[in-house]
Design a protein that fits this description.
The chain is mainly α. Helix content is 45%, strand content 10%. The strands form 5 sheets. A 3-stranded parallel sheet has the order 1-2-3. Strands 4-5-8 form a 3-stranded antiparallel sheet. 36% of the residues are buried. The protein binds zinc ion.
């Protein structure tokens, strides 16, 4: 493929919030498509809405993308630094008759309200309100020379700069092709004369572009070949197709990807749990697991494969696999993916995430990256079958890495009740202290011999010991755990637990 024919795609978030899971999924699709096709992935920040933008959120969005493992080839490019380009495009549309100056109050006609309805993220209600306003075109569209001069004069006397509206044809249809949804066609009578440049609001000096104008001008200038974005933009696309026509350009290939819904089939929102990518990172999901999960929301590899590591996704991704059906964000499924990754990743790949978690919990020791690395990897391997999220390594499994752990009250309640335990556990501690060889079978034998000679079930001692050395009722197999923790610490922990066991059995 020559450079000229390489696909060019973009992800274009607005810094009006954090990176939403829906936006993240769109970014992943663009990224997978670009990487699969050997194309270019561009990051563009759509920050022309001065009232809703919060520039400080840009870093958070970039961080979330990096966490997801998404890299970009060009950008971030900020629309706020390209305003002259959009104004020039509007001038061109005015000059060739595809646009006209509108002297009306911004809220009088559809498409002129500064609360740009198309940019509202979720909203059926908005759709309805919009359709009521449609079709009615303002008189500025057909002003004759005298009328325009009068309007111009009045505007000048009031210091009012007119908006620029697109002159939508009154008859005919506007059509575009969508790689996912097929050909779409809309009656022009249904499309309002949407605004391209807004009349400045109080406190502003210059006219700002609307989403439609900036988006099309950028996509043209950046030579975008495929616009892959959420299906909530389907309704915007006829307007954008009209702008392409007015600027004498062919539109790119559109690919609208299905929306992500909550389990109740409404748009994914805070009601359904966390919606920002950052909160899943903080909760301790593995980025690759999260990415795998998101990729399968609205895309299928064509078979029932689910556990698809990055290399496989890159190899198999194509727009042909994108569904028209909205996807359901299923939290248990996400947790299933995370568990799969925790269990299946090569332990060397998992180790950096565990190390970061232990650092976060302030129980990390440098030797685990050096002399004791083999121990560290073995221990992760032992623990990981029982983990769901990264913090499990520093919480339930804390006793493997730190002497500073507490006894789970429910575990104490359940396994430290037997009145014989204080005496038995004291003997067990001394038997282990006297044990010359610290290996699995020797540890096993000591415990079973004691149980036999005292006439109790081995399970009684196994359960009580697990709580004493790890604080938990559920943990990896006991004797493997004892090996990982080491003789000295096991004996110390057994001795240390004796007062608490006595207190429990007499309470
Ligand atoms: Zn008007």
């Amino acid at each position: 493929m020559s450079t000229a024919s390489k696909p060019r795609v973009r992800f274009a978030p607005s810094p009006t919030g954090y990176l939403h899971v829906g936006g993240a999924r769109t970014a992943i699709f663009n990224w997978l498509f670009a990487r699969h096709e050997g194309g270019i992935f561009i990051l563009r920040i759509e920050d022309t809405d001065v009232e809703r933008n919060r520039p400080e959120l840009v870093d958070g969005i970039l961080d979330s993308l990096r966490w997801l493992g998404i890299d970009w080839d060009e950008g971030p490019i900020f629309q706020s630094q390209r305003l002259e380009m959009y104004r020039a495009a509007a001038e061109k549309l005015l000059a060739n008759g595809f646009a006209y100056l509108c002297y009306c109050a911004p809220e009088k006609y559809a498409g002129g309200d500064h609360a740009e309805v198309e940019e509202v993220e979720e909203g059926e209600e908005v759709e309805e309100k919009k359709s009521l306003l449609k079709k009615q075109r303002c008189g500025c569209r057909n002003l004759d020379a005298a009328g325009r001069a009068a309007a111009e004069k009045q505007a000048a006397s009031q210091g009012f700069q007119p908006a620029v509206r697109f002159r939508v044809p009154e008859a005919g249809t506007t059509a575009f092709d969508d790689a996912v949804f097929g050909r779409r066609e809309v009656q022009n009578a249904e499309i309002e004369d949407f605004v391209l440049l807004r009349s400045p609001k109080p406190g502003q000096t210059a006219r700002l572009p609307t989403y439609h104008l900036a988006c099309v001008v950028d996509d043209m200038e950046m030579r975008i070949t495929h616009v892959i974005r959420g299906a909530d933009h389907l309704s915007n696309t006829p307007k954008q197709a009209l702008i392409y026509g007015g600027l004498g350009a062919a539109p790119p290939i559109f690919a609208h990807v299905p929306l992500i819904l909550g389990p109740d089939k409404t748009r994914m929102s805070k009601r359904h749990g966390a919606t920002s990518v950052g909160s899943y990172s903080e909760e301790g999901f593995l980025p690759e697991a999260f990415r795998n999960f998101l990729t399968l929301l609205g895309w299928s590899p064509g078979d029932d494969a689910q556990f698809l590591r990055t290399a496989e996704l890159l190899e198999r991704f194509s727009l042909a696999g994108v569904s028209r059906t909205n996807a359901i964000f299923d939290r248990p499924k996400l947790e299933w993916f995370n568990t799969q990754y925790l269990q299946k990743l090569p332990v060397e790949e998992l180790a950096p995430y565990v190390a970061a978690e232990l650092k976060r919990a302030k129980i990390w020791r440098e030797e685990w990256a050096g002399a004791a690395r083999a121990w560290f990897l073995r221990t992760i391997d032992l623990i990981r079958l029982r983990t769901r999220l990264l913090p499990d390594f520093s919480a339930a499994a804390r006793g493997f890495f730190s002497d500073d752990f507490s006894y789970d009250p429910a575990a104490m309640e359940k396994f430290w009740k037997d009145a014989k335990l204080p005496a038995l556990m004291a003997k067990l501690a001394e038997s282990y202290a006297a044990l010359a060889e610290w290996n699995h079978d020797a540890c096993d034998k000591v415990l079973r011999d004691l149980a036999a000679s005292e006439g109790v079930k081995a399970g009684l001692l196994i359960n009580a010991t697990r709580v004493a050395i790890l604080g938990q009722a559920v943990a990896p197999p006991l004797f493997d755990s004892m090996l990982a923790i080491g003789k000295e610490r096991v004996v110390a922990r057994l001795r240390q637990a004796l007062p608490a066991i006595s207190a429990k059995t007499t309470s």
